[in-house]
Amino acid sequence: MTDPVIDLRGVTRRYDEGPPALHDVSLTVKPGECVAVLGPSGSGKSTLLNLIAGLDRPDEGTVTVAGTRVDTLGEAASARYRRAHIGLVFQFFNLLDDLTVLDNVLLPAQLAGGSRKAARDHAAGLLSSLGIARHADAYPGRLSGGERQRVAVARALVNRPALLLADEPTGALDTASGEDVRHLLNGLHDSGQTIVLVTHDLRLAEACATRTIGMRDGHAEEER
Amino acid sequence: MSGLRQVIRSGVRRRRVQTVVIGLVAAAAVTASVLGAGLLVASRAPFDNSFAAQHGAHLTVQLAPDAKPPADVPGVVAASGPYAVLDVPLQGPPLTLVARADPGGDVDRVEVTDGRWATAPNEIVVGDGSFRLPVGEHLTTENGVTLTVVGTARSVSQTATAWVAPSAVESLGTIQGYQMLYRFGAASTAADVEAGRAAVEAALPKGAVTGARSWLDVRQQAVEEAAVFVPFLVAFALLGIVMAVLVVGTVIAGAVAAGTRRIGILKALGCTPAGIVRAFVAQALIPASVGGVAGAVAGNLIALPVLAETEQLYGSSNATIAWWVTLVAAGGVLVVVAATAWAAALRAGRLRTVDAIAVGRAAGPVRGRWAGRWAARLPVSRPVALGLARPFARPVRTTAILLAVATGATAVTFATGLAASLVRIQAAVEQDNADVIVMGMRGDAAGALPAITAQAGTRAAYGMGQAPAIVSGNTDPFSVTTITGDATWDGFEMVSGRWFTATGEAVAGAPFLNATGTRIGDTVQIKIQDQPVRLRIVGEVFETNGGVFTSTSTIPDVPVGEWHIALTDGTDKNAYAQSLTTALAGQNLTAQPNGAEIDPLLAVVQGLTLTLTLLLLAVAALGVLNMLVLDLRDRVHDLGVHKALGMTPRQTIAMVIASVAGLGVLGSLLGVPLGIAMQRLVVPAMAASGGLHLPESLLDVYGPVLLGGLALGGPVIALLGALLPAGWAARTRTAVALRTE
Question: In this protein, which residues make up the domain named ABC3 transporter permease C-terminal (chain B) (predicted)?
């Protein structure tokens, strides 16, 4: 039996005095799965993603990703964990405006160290496979929304992560660009990439996800 | 109004770093200003102030032992005395004692600086000028009377070397005469004082006055001694004040500029431009006021020991910080804060509301991309490369950081050079590098030097004698120093020409050369005890007292009264002096270790340099910190992206420090040469204002080691300023940073 890539057990996260953002959530994701997390604003979707990415820590419960106990990591260790295991795609791309497309994609590899040439070759290959190689020396400000999200996906994949986390990847895109990103993620899933999507976009969930999880008031429910 | 108050309160609380930085910078600025202004005030007419405070004697008259002081003298407004005067031989030169029942009176109110006044026959109060002895010390006269030092005191009129109670006179020996102290209605000119003296003499039998000293002569001596150093201390003071004003202006302007978006929101909510100006001026003034109070306290505390030493330097008393100096310094800094905040807020307040709101939200033009591409190719880690490229993205902010670093480096370099020059000037003025000095009133010149040279541990030695002389056509007498042996090691610095080597040759200082119109190569005829002597001037020596130096062989009649000795490394001064005194026993000479006292000027300079250097470093580092905090706040979201992509805290710190490292190096490259140029320009100019020419050796103070240390100044300022923001950036939670817009 294959070990799960993600294993959350009894995770609770509270902010201030209000009700918990996540309450006793347990969840497993197997290698190669594409899981879509759906739910209204404030339901705890982004908190769940932050905990899996090691950007935040739970108050209770355990978070294990690719065999690593993420909830016990310090700042430096969680940074190294993200480099090794996680690719992040944001709603608003979060590309760095002062770096070229190629340099944006290269950044996680460069932060991780290792061979520069190998990183460059791999980044160039990713840009090529995502159809944006011609923009390698351009700056993100000149690209369309869809192209920027492709760059963000290339950056997320440059360290060959076990897990791709995407937070509303089509949320800031027009219809055509959204369709473009849906195809891209679908293709990645088909190639065996494990993906967790946080989205409002039901079409995206239907197109890519092998299963969906509904979030409401900090509780997670398996939907499909 | 309450709404505005709420805006001010939240602005002060919310921007804690900014509030703290403004408070700290204001504190440092007030401290530097109090110190600087205090020195300025202390150096302004210090003799006149002290003379007025002590009701100094316009004329000090010595009366014969059998003379009776006149009851009423025309023109005299106050008189003190008669006080018995005694010359008491100690082990060494005799001490002139004055017997006074108390230090007060209508004239010459002697200030007791330590201990108390002498009341018993075996007690003595010593002057704290050249004759320094601590309270509790004992003095034994040649006829076996032991006196205990019960106090130290200062007379601006210099009426005595030491004082005893009238009851001590009988045991100490024969009265040499009596001292009368007078104040006249008019004494501002030599003619006034001379008229007063004539009136005193006319009221007494002929021959009753055996000597008299005008306060103008005392004043001239005091002013000459202090005049050389006052301009240097003034330069220190001005440096502190100018730096304080510069940095306060930069920090406040930056702080207000960072609040432009807030200004836009307030305007959108209906706040008027005038209200905005009031709010931002108050936001700056609240922490600045707190800092100003702290700085005023710190400035006074730091200034106390420094000014205590300047009292010695000026030979004056009451060199304390006046209350109004503190008030003006603190008020001045607050005015600078208010004016800068007002100007910056007015400018921001006049922005169109929509533009002001857009500041910090809309992506501005991205600059310096070429630097990013260039840095990416450097063989350094990616965080360091990102940091190195950062200054090119915000040129205005980078310029502000560079200015803070370069100004700090310039100021530290200048202050260090000024202090080093001043210490060398002091050594050259005193011409006193000797480890041991042999003195004796009836010394044997011929026998002493060979005996000294033969003593184990002697590295170099020379003997010197002094005599007053005059030059034809010049009424002022000057001092001729005759030298036996090699004296060039004893602090003598040549301005031009060379040291004398043959009989008939001499070197002289600028005051003598200027007063007599003599140039190097000229021959002058002087008279010593009515005997003419011809001297050929072969060099200008750095000298402030109008002295001439020649070989003993040129004027053999001047007796040698003092021998200066330099010891070999590792020789114990005290043991050597004891051994030499024994060896010279038959010649009635005493050897004493030299240089044990801390020179007051050196203490002032070292204290000032250290204080100002630390203040300037701190203030410059605060300027860097302020700019970095603003910059990191602006790009906290990018910081979150970096961290989300795997940047560790250590890599974050490296990136932030690298962003100012280049500026630190550049700041040193600009600031150190500028500081050296300032020292090269200012020090000779200040010396020239006192009629002195400085030899190159007194200016050339920046050795390789010092330069190396100063070159680190810029990077150190940058590092100090970057440490806190770098730590803050490393600690910032990734999820929080990503949510920030």
Answer: 235-350, 612-726
